[in-house]
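Now read this:
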Amino acid sequence: MQNAKVYVIDDDPAMRDSLDFLLGSAGFVVRLFESAQIFLNELPDLAAGCVVTDIRMPGIDGMELLRQLNLASRKLPVIVMTGHGDVPLAVEAMKLGALDFLEKPFEDDRLIGMIETALSQSDSGAKSEAVSADMAARVASLTPRERQVMQGLVTGLSNKAIARDYDISPRTVEVYRANVMTKMQAGNLSELVRFAIRAGIVED
C-alpha cells in the first residue's frame, strides 16, 4: 500500500493537517481539499485512491458528495468521518456507497486499517457474493429477538428505546446486543451497520 493515494476532504484546517501528518507517516500520498466542490472539480484528473471525507461541511456536505460520486464515471472508495455519533446518518452514508463510517475522535490505526481495506477492495474489484453469503449466514445464526435488537441498533435506537419497544429491560438488551456483535463478528456499531446492509437487513 506504499504510495497509495488518499484524498482528504475536511473544512477544518487542523483536521486536514493532522490527517496529512498521520497518513503521510503511514506511507500514503495525501492530497488535501478544504471543500467537496474543489475535490469534485479536480476529480477527472485524480489517480485511483481512497477518499476520506468529513460529513458535515458547508456547501456540499459528505452526503451530497457521495451522491455526486455515484453519478461520476470514476468509482473511488469513500470513508466518511463525523464528529456527531449519528447512526441513522451512518446508515444513509453506507446506503449511498460509503465503505465505512468513523466517529471523531478515532484511533489512528483504525483509520489506516480502513483505508488499506478500501484500497485492496478497490484493487480487486471485490464485491464478492461470497461475502454477502457469509453475512447472510451470520444473520441466520441470530435468534428472532437478537435480530430485532440488531434492527433497532442499525436504525439508531438506544438500548432504552429498544427495551421499551419490546417490553424488556435495558440490561437484557445489553446482553442481546453483546450476542449480536459476537455472532455478526462486528467490532463496533459502524461495522454492524455495514454488515447489516450487506446482508440485506437494512434496505438499500
Q: What stands out?
A: The mean pLDDT is 87. The domain at 129-198 is CATH 1.10.10.10 (Arc Repressor Mutant, subunit A). The longest helix spans residues 108-124.
